[in-house]
Design goal:
about 40% helix; about 350 residues; 12 helices; five-stranded mixed beta sheet; alpha+beta; Nucleotidyltransferase, domain 5; flat; Actin, Chain A, domain 4
Length: about 350
């Protein structure tokens, strides 16, 4: 084993980052998940100065004056604003790194459909933020590891990771992704569906945070035994004054129907591309759902009905990806082959 690797191994501090469109999670080797914050940065434009990151920035969303802008540097699972993303990554690394003299080795999760240029941007941003070395891992591979699937065995495992910006569907065997489908439709699209539904049906303009709250409280993929309702508040687009209306889960399910159907279609497409021997394994072993979007009520039931396959929701689906990436950090030699190549 090279001296440099041995030295850094015992110094510790290596980091796994689930750099998500909505949330960023940071796992530190030997310590677990230490950061779980919104992927948001607030900037004071007149001074070109960052004034808040993570939860503090999210609290400002939709409530700022013209000189303050809340930016989400991630879009569709990849970096959209290089400079802001670098500032955010650096802030999260510093939050967990006690020894500032040590530059950590960093593994970053990326969508399976990431392009070469997007890989380069992510690597550059992490290096500029203080990483010594940067490795990439596909989100569905990390998610599969995080839920305990035998990714190195000669059996087919299927995982669906529904995040904020992308839905990742992959069949995994022998430490690699055999077939994958990545669509840039996920939780953010659901929020936008709700914003447009409220505008179209009630002439009510609501913000991003309100749409997300409605999704969490009323959203579903299948009819519920007891339908729910709540009061939604926003601005009347006709009168221009504050307005509150009552909406129910039936309406919101209709608003989300197109996005849910797109995810179901992508799963079916992925199953069609799966080799027959691995299809038999999936038939026996079923499909695992991970990611924040999988928490939409009845999503696993809808997929079960549409595919006639066993579908189960992972325990703590929000952390599966970063936990799986942490497993690579904890035993780098064993899992090195699951990392993406340039």
């Amino acid at each position: 084993m090279p001296f440099s690797f041995t030295f850094f191994k015992y110094m510790g501090g290596d980091i796994a980052i689930d750099l998500g469109t909505c949330n960023t999670l940071v796992y530190v080797k030997g310590k677990g998940i230490l950061v779980r914050e919104p992927s948001m940065v607030a900037i004071k434009k007149s001074e070109h100065k960052v004034i808040a990151i993570g939860y503090e920035a999210r609290e400002m969303l939709g409530k700022t004056h013209p000189d303050i802008e809340v930016i989400r540097p991630m879009r569709d699972g990849v970096i959209d604003d290089d400079e802001v993303a670098e500032v955010m990554i650096r802030a999260f690394i510093r939050k967990v790194q006690k020894n500032r003299l040590m530059r950590p080795r960093v593994i970053v999760c990326v969508p399976s459909g990431v392009t070469k240029s997007e890989k380069r941007i992510i690597r550059d941003s992490a290096e500029h933020a203080g990483a010594r070395e940067v490795f990439l891992i596909a989100e569905p591979m990390a998610a599969a590891m995080g839920v305990g699937l035998p990714v190195n065995d000669p059996v087919g495992s299927m995982v669906i990771d529904i995040g904020g910006g992308t839905t990742e569907i992959a069949v995994i065997s022998l430490g690699g992704i055999v077939s994958d489908t990545s669509i840039r439709i996920a939780g953010d699209e659901m929020d936008e569906n709700i914003v447009q539904f409220m505008r179209r049906n009630y002439n009510l303009l609501i913000g991003e945070r309100t749409a997300e709250e409605i999704k969490h409280r009323l959203g579903s993929a299948v009819p519920m035994e007891n339908e729910l309702s709540m009061i939604a508040k926003g601005r009347d687009l006709v009168a221009g004054i504050p307005k509150a209306i009552e909406i129910n889960s039936i309406e919101i399910r209709e608003a989300l129907s197109e996005t849910v159907a797109a995810i179901v279609d992508a799963v079916k497409l992925s199953l069609e591309k799966t080799p027959p021997e691995l299809s038999a394994d999936i038939r026996d072993r079923g499909i695992i759902l991970t990611g924040g979007g999988s928490l939409l009520r009845g999503m696993e039931i809808r997929l079960r009905e549409e595919t006639s396959l066993p579908v189960a929701l992972a325990d703590d689906p929000l952390t599966c990806v970063v936990r799986g990436t942490g497993m690579v950090l904890d035993d780098f030699e064993k899992y090195e082959k699951v990392l993406l190549r340039s």
